[in-house]
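quick one, 448 residues, struct below
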Amino acid sequence: MNQKNHSSDKGYKQTEVGVIPEDWEVKKLGEISNVKTGPFGSALHERDYVEDGTPIITVEHLGEQGVVHENLPMVSDSDKKRLAAYSLQPDDIVFSRVGSVDRNSLISKKENGWLFSGRLLRIRINEKNVYPAFLSYYFHSDPTKQRIRTVAVGQTMASLNTQILNNVQVTFPPTKAEQTAIAIVLSDADALIQSLEKLIAKKRNIKQGAMQKCLNCDSYDLYDEDDLKIQKKNQGNQKNHKNHSSDKWVVKKLGEVAVLKARIGWQGLTTAEYKETGDYFLITGTDFKNGFIDWGNCVYVDDQRYKQDKNIQVKENDVLVTKDGTIGKVAFIKNIPKPATLNSGVFVIRPTEQSFHPEFFYYLLLSEHFKIFLSQLSAGSTINHLYQKDFVHFEFQTPKTIEEQTRIATILSDMDAEIAALETKLTKYKQIKQGMMQELLTGRTRLI
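---
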């Protein structure tokens, strides 16, 4: 979509922070608010914490949609009285002072009376004509974040102080009513995003339950594909439910039923050979994302490197496992946009003579069973490499028939597809919200 330059349009004006409507105001933050630094030093110390007391907000608790309430440190009530001047009120805006200086959150009624650490700055609006929630969204817009990062000081780590924030220029509509209308629209978008995030989390939990049920021969019964819920044994309804006991599962050792391949030492690649574009993908451990390969993150190699070893030319239905660095990351190859090969940090696993269903095995590697295997390998050591001589001894259980393995894999794969579709929708909603912010927070679109 082409963006119209409003600088020459009637009703708009050029300012130091961009083109805005003529009736919008431009003020320094210090003119409309009081900015205060937190009471503590560079960090909270363990001796300051208590199990039950007044929560303290730190940098890691600043979320775009509000304060994150997980793992909040607390101080005693006596400390709260001593630090009363640093108590938070609803509609305060808390800013990161060090590091990620563009992070900030709007304080809600839930956080009333909480404290904020010395790594934060508190903004309290004292201008009656400014709606704090609007200003919070203004600080979350990409152009404003960039301006904040630009004015931060420090060579090794970016930092802000009260003087810097006081001099930051902000723009806003002339009436509080219009500011409120903008904040409500963006808040509705946030609510939609949050509900979708909760749904995705719920679907992930359901999938985890399904994996525990379907991949465990002792508890595996039957998965009802109609309602996508794990069913318990139902002796009174044998028409649609069969009993699958552990005697229909078999134990297999990976080295006896699969071929493991990786780029061998003399074929080692250097980063100097990585290319930004090309015809042949190179899959590295950093390309693993949510159980699949993030093709958009992959680098490329030339045709000679790709053709060097046919054994590691990636195929559909391959199972990949990282063996260096963060070991045990797993990916399944469902499709290949371009020919692809592996770097030296990745195993490819292929079954011999249909000894197991690849996608079933992929889900097995995502289960606790494989994590336990890796933890036993690393017991008493700081393992950072998965050796083939150890991996071939990995034992796992599968249903005897490929058909049953396929059925289980299909159930879990359908769940993954549903989650992926929701994540795509979530990405779209976030993009829409960013577009709305760009329109509403610059006055390109007016809500009157």
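The radius of gyration is 28 Å.
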